[in-house]
């Protein structure tokens, strides 16, 4: 669990790199193998205004990338389960890659959509861990969104 907290704190820090947006959260994410090696990192709007953090990190691993056993995605915010800007949600991308675990800090508030990422991931066989003690730190880069405070 201490490794989970350290890696999730690193993902939370990545969220600070996200350019602020009035229509999206600032999120950071890591993809980590079973040995604790960071395979990829991402943050919201990293390359494009519609990039999500998990999507950005997974894209760095290449098209059709499959997660080795024991892979974990760390995200400052619960992975999205609905979006209008891209054809696939972060939840769908995580499931398609075969990721075994997702650890996140902050449940997606109903500001833009109703978040069901944790439930959909669990239904897909993913081990989902929420570490709410890091939620305040995950909210901090989102204070520009009045509803997220």
Automatic annotation (TrEMBL):
Region (Disordered): 44-65
Superkingdom to which the source organism belongs: Bacteria
InterPro entries documented for this protein: CMP_dCMP_dom, Cytidine_deaminase-like
All copies of domain CMP/dCMP-type deaminase, residue ranges: 2-128
Protein name per Swiss-Prot or TrEMBL: CMP/dCMP-type deaminase domain-containing protein
Organism of derivation: Pseudonocardia adelaidensis
